[in-house]
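hey
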């Protein structure tokens, strides 16, 4: 069933139940493909923290977008939701050229703001904040970068979009969508919908241009059919 996080707390129990049912009323399962954008300039220059830094795709990243588009070409994609970041929009437009479907830019899919760590490599962060970086790797909720976005707030915005998408699928009669997003946001989404501790989101692996397929059954339960799939990529890392 849906987490209580999907329903506003100011609704009565009866209203909340009606809202859940309205989302999952259709008998056919829904499918969401969560796709991380391809290689960006920042990815290629030392695996930098590139949350709100608007780094474009490399040529390799564009080729990866072509690969993802071909992999999803026969899936009957109805809509593609994308982060507004340049690297994500570029990636989503290439996918759309292969799959069709409506393209929707939604700010809730943007990457975390890493605050003072923006633009720095992992090694540079370790050198400047050795104790915090070590603690961050153990628990990124309690030990987040200075002046960064709280992952719990990021979880709220991505779950808000998730709920909106499922409701739209039911009311507008479409069933297969793609979310083009970022490393941390994809991980936070997966932990949130599966009910896993958010403090463990960094333990997941979401590679550039990977595809994660999520099926939602008629009871509203999400099932991951595969995660971080990369065998569609013509260039292996």
């Amino acid at each position: 069933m849906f987490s209580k996080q999907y329903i506003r707390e100011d609704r009565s129990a009866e209203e909340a139940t009606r809202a859940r049912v309205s989302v999952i009323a259709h008998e056919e399962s829904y499918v969401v493909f969560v796709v991380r954008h391809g290689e960006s300039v920042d990815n290629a220059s030392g695996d930098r923290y590139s949350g709100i830094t608007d780094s474009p795709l490399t040529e390799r990243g564009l080729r990866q977008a072509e690969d993802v588009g071909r992999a999803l070409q026969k899936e009957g994609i109805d809509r593609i939701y994308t982060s507004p970041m340049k690297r994500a929009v570029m990636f989503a437009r290439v996918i759309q050229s292969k799959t069709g479907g409506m393209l929707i830019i939604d700010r809730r899919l943007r990457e975390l703001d890493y605050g003072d760590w923006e633009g720095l490599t992992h090694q540079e962060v370790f050198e400047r904040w050795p104790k915090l970086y070590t603690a961050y790797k153990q628990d990124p909720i309690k030990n987040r970068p200075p002046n960064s976005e709280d992952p719990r707030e990021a979880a709220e915005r991505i779950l808000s979009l998730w709920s909106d998408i499922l409701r739209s699928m039911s009311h507008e009669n479409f069933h297969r969508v793609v979310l083009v997003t970022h490393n941390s946001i994809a991980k936070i989404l997966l932990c949130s919908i599966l009910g896993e501790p958010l403090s463990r989101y960094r333990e997941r692996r979401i590679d550039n241009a990977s595809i994660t397929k999520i099926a939602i059954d008629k009871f509203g339960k999400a099932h991951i059919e595969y995660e971080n799939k990369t065998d569609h990529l013509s260039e292996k890392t």
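The radius of gyration is 18 Å. The domain at 29-44+57-114+150-229 is CATH 3.40.50.1240 (Rossmann fold).
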